[in-house]
Amino acid sequence: MTTGTPIHVFVPNTDQRGGDYSEMAKAYRPSHADATYDFKYGVRAVQGGGRSSARETIGRVAAGALAKKILKLKSGVEILAFVSKVHQVVLPEDAVDFETVTMEQIESNIVRCPDPEYAEKMIAAIDKVRIRGDSIGGVVTCIARNVPRGIGSPVFDKLEAELAKAMLSLPASKGFEIGSGFAGTDFTGSEHNDEFYMDEAGNVRTRTNRSGGVQGGISNGEIIYFKVAFKPTATIGKKQNTVSREHQDVELLARGRHDPCVVPRAVPMVESMAALVLMDQLMAHIAQCEMFPLNFSLQEPIGMASSASELAPNLS
Amino acid sequence: MTTGTPIHVFVPNTDQRGGDYSEMAKAYRPSHADATYDFKYGVRAVQGGGRSSARETIGRVAAGALAKKILKLKSGVEILAFVSKVHQVVLPEDAVDFETVTMEQIESNIVRCPDPEYAEKMIAAIDKVRIRGDSIGGVVTCIARNVPRGIGSPVFDKLEAELAKAMLSLPASKGFEIGSGFAGTDFTGSEHNDEFYMDEAGNVRTRTNRSGGVQGGISNGEIIYFKVAFKPTATIGKKQNTVSREHQDVELLARGRHDPCVVPRAVPMVESMAALVLMDQLMAHIAQCEMFPLNFSLQEPIGMASSASELAPNLS
Amino acid sequence: MTTGTPIHVFVPNTDQRGGDYSEMAKAYRPSHADATYDFKYGVRAVQGGGRSSARETIGRVAAGALAKKILKLKSGVEILAFVSKVHQVVLPEDAVDFETVTMEQIESNIVRCPDPEYAEKMIAAIDKVRIRGDSIGGVVTCIARNVPRGIGSPVFDKLEAELAKAMLSLPASKGFEIGSGFAGTDFTGSEHNDEFYMDEAGNVRTRTNRSGGVQGGISNGEIIYFKVAFKPTATIGKKQNTVSREHQDVELLARGRHDPCVVPRAVPMVESMAALVLMDQLMAHIAQCEMFPLNFSLQEPIGMASSASELAPNLS
Amino acid sequence: MTTGTPIHVFVPNTDQRGGDYSEMAKAYRPSHADATYDFKYGVRAVQGGGRSSARETIGRVAAGALAKKILKLKSGVEILAFVSKVHQVVLPEDAVDFETVTMEQIESNIVRCPDPEYAEKMIAAIDKVRIRGDSIGGVVTCIARNVPRGIGSPVFDKLEAELAKAMLSLPASKGFEIGSGFAGTDFTGSEHNDEFYMDEAGNVRTRTNRSGGVQGGISNGEIIYFKVAFKPTATIGKKQNTVSREHQDVELLARGRHDPCVVPRAVPMVESMAALVLMDQLMAHIAQCEMFPLNFSLQEPIGMASSASELAPNLS
């Protein structure tokens, strides 16, 4: 390997907006979108990462806030995400009750983990890498309660496929699993299948929920839950070998502020993208299946607003 | 729980096409699309599962075969998938060399695992559940070699997002991870980042490939690799509790043939969907970025055919 | 001009399906898609014209039949098209009452013109060119009664824009005009504007309908009406100069059956495409505007089915 | 008819931006989008018309300027529109030579008519209605020279269909015709067909161009030309009967500035939308047909840029 010329790169910082980005233009940050944007477009926005910055998601979160409100008003849908892993600190599966967990519990600490004990461990893990100028990633778990039965599509646009695309479109995400996910492959079919039963209210329900609320691409009325993996932040404060835009081997040392763990900040992004997917699918479902229901004894129409006072005032 | 009325359900079988499906219409198979199709549409195709059957993917595989051929001719792209896990038999990460693995190795055994020793173990695992009338799932790993740099999009339609959607649209898939995926969250940024270097041919390359060939939604020229989790087949030969279409608790015993492990059969589906995604993105890239390249020193144009003889004869 | 080599081209004929198309492959029929398909694809389906044949519209008409039925059941929408011009025989504007014209009147003769007197003139015009081996075109007028107010979109996807695209996608169509259309440019604004008034049922109505039922891209509750121009059939039985696929000047004489005037056959195509556009827009409208009505005193919700018996039985 | 209560409505005026719009909110302007926006959304932007204002087209014109530049650089495409009718002043068909007309000729007068004599007549016609507080419409003709052969699609997305949709999406447009259009129905097929011949450069050409440069949905290399009808401006300075938002019959007298004829201002909108359609289709064509040409002797590849210096500098 050629010995690299040292390059000191300045990373944007809210306190130093006027900083000098000229050096940053010279080196490709490892595992960042710097190089691929140049490969594709031959041009990129150096300041702040341009479209590759997680700031891009602000529009998604704004739209998601509206979608969440409408879903709640229309069908009582509640979407909540929380941090379930930071580096090697793993929140146990049974530490959170999907039926009862609240936003208050999630927002009670800075890492957005509803379990206070594990929140402390996660915060400690982040502090540990921060002082070393390093970074760590983690996992966000998302649940959606009260999603109507029948939302989604049977083939290409399966509900889990739409959710997977939405989540992998978030910066730094590298994995998605719904229901039992990868761990579900450790089971046999007889262990894994979710048996149906009739509940006291006369609804078809499942006793277990390894399906994660989706079967055959369509919601079954159980809680939808899935996990998203986020890699460690690419921009770190440690010296790295890389190449410059001029194709020279160089050493890079990022200066300025950088975030050692973006996972807690991904929580509202995950919730918002889930809300946008569900809202889109709900709109499609109502247009496709509720204008002309074929069999009311099997379908459960979500229905339209019956009066202005029912919905409109709550949207303002 | 109400004691279920026993229902014996007949599962379609290539030897008994004329079989009686009337009983199958009565019970919802656990973890199958039976119930959700009824919730959504109020009607479903009982025979063979209709659109929820993996037979639906035949069109995808046909189209994928063309896409693979074109990608190969145009850019030398090679797409190969193989089984890397069956139930609890896990192919070690280092057992397969992504640079050199061949389709011959993969197709040398019935489970489509390129390592003969692990192939035997997987076959044994499948045989074990077959005789019990049970089923198992597993994981398919897919690689794409020689994908040009610059394929993909920076925001919503990231290459990994398109791949994730494509894979989660396959029947029985429950998870997707690209590059280091979920396991990548165990690393720090300094351990995880893929350092860039200039190779002897003057190309920007990375020393490691935890990114899985994609950074910021766009291919970086390294091998693209990802994994897809497939749950155990829902239809099994063991008695299960469930409910009927008429909302009665019943016992279900599927009769007829059923497949104890569909994972080997998912291999061509995964390859085909990967090829279709890459083909779509390649077409978009050429239209968007190669008609009007901005900076040839950074971009690497894929280019157009220069003569009819170059391509046309090979497509027939 | 080079003197062309005579080529006799055989045109498909329902009585002679086994006919020899080899000659047809040699010459480009003037004003047909023969040449442009070759320019674009380098290959074309010679037999029957492939996708350029009006037979392609069979799927549109089948889907349109369903859409018409649903629109009728849901909102009482009635879509009727008829021939209003054949060559130089022009049906006077006031010969047809858009409020009362029926399908029976339209279907009472072979040219699908609701006025018997003009139907006779049109039939005579067609007979006249048939015996000469020539062809003629004409105009189809389409009306849609009882379209709910509020259907359409305000900017790119205006209802008239969707209709225009749908109509210009029909083979041989060369023009589209809605409401007063091109003739509306002869009026001043004070002559052309449709004054609003409140009718006895308390609905906002217009006294005239030069808008053709659409204002600002959105339906206003009046009858939607538009016209579509169809050029004379390109394939004729008279000798024409043209060029061959091998770029030689040739003379072409089409043999076999050809249709001297396709305009009456375009009537169901026009109706079907109108129904598909309206159905799409109705579905979008219900999803976008009726799930969350903002102001019931201004909007007129179309509403959902309130019982299975209301709709389902009628769709079977 | 109920005697209307007089309402004086203020129409926005660049000199009086702070004007009082409160009265305008009360009455629906005849033939304007006022009423339909309320029917659909239950809410509308009163000031300036919101999305129904032609100001909305600014983004289209900005994007169109780029598309025109790229089309010119890539394929020498020239797109020019001009006013060919204002009220009852009709520019004769032979007054403009499509082969040679220039932007300078078009821009030489305020009505954007390339014939000075008719421009004067049009200006006089507009002046005449302006003083009466009335309005008039007209027709814009658009031509596109040097469009490559093979651009467009054979079925739903025919080039003429895309153009028709684009034009009918412009405010106040009521009609579209390509090539011979509605007048083409006066001809027989033998009179109307465009005979092919080989020109001296060895290209397949047509002697006439009644097709308007498009056959079977695909460009044939001749000049594309079409016409768009624009109705008289809805907002006028004369008293009109209408209804208020509260469903009362009222009289409306618009105050403030209003434009008596928007047709000259529609010229750049028409050019821009044509450029955007052609650009989209060119991109699709290159991706679909030029990556893998099937028959070079029939197709005429447009080709990719062969060097950065060829294109990039000209785009800045």
Automatic annotation (TrEMBL), chains A, B, C, D:
What processes does the entry annotate via GO biological process terms? amino acid biosynthetic process; aromatic amino acid family biosynthetic process; chorismate biosynthetic process
Q: Which Gene3D superfamilies match?
A: Chorismate synthase AroC
Q: Which GO terms describe its molecular function?
A: chorismate synthase activity; FMN binding
What superkingdom does the record give? Eukaryota
The EC number(s) given in the record are 4.2.3.5
Please give an example of a GO cellular component term from this record: cytosol
Pathway annotation = Metabolic intermediate biosynthesis; chorismate biosynthesis; chorismate from D-erythrose 4-phosphate and phosphoenolpyruvate: step 7/7
Keywords linked to the UniProt accession:
Amino-acid biosynthesis, Aromatic amino acid biosynthesis, Lyase
Coiled-coil ranges (or none): none
Task: Work out whether the entry's keyword set contains RNA-binding.
Answer: no
Database matches in InterPro entries: Chorismate_synth (IPR000453), Chorismate_synth_AroC_sf (IPR035904), Chorismate_synthase_CS (IPR020541)
The reply to whether Secreted figures as a keyword in the UniProt entry is: no
Q: Which family does it belong to?
A: Belongs to the chorismate synthase family.
Name of the molecule in the record: chorismate synthase
Species of provenance: Panicum virgatum (Blackwell switchgrass)
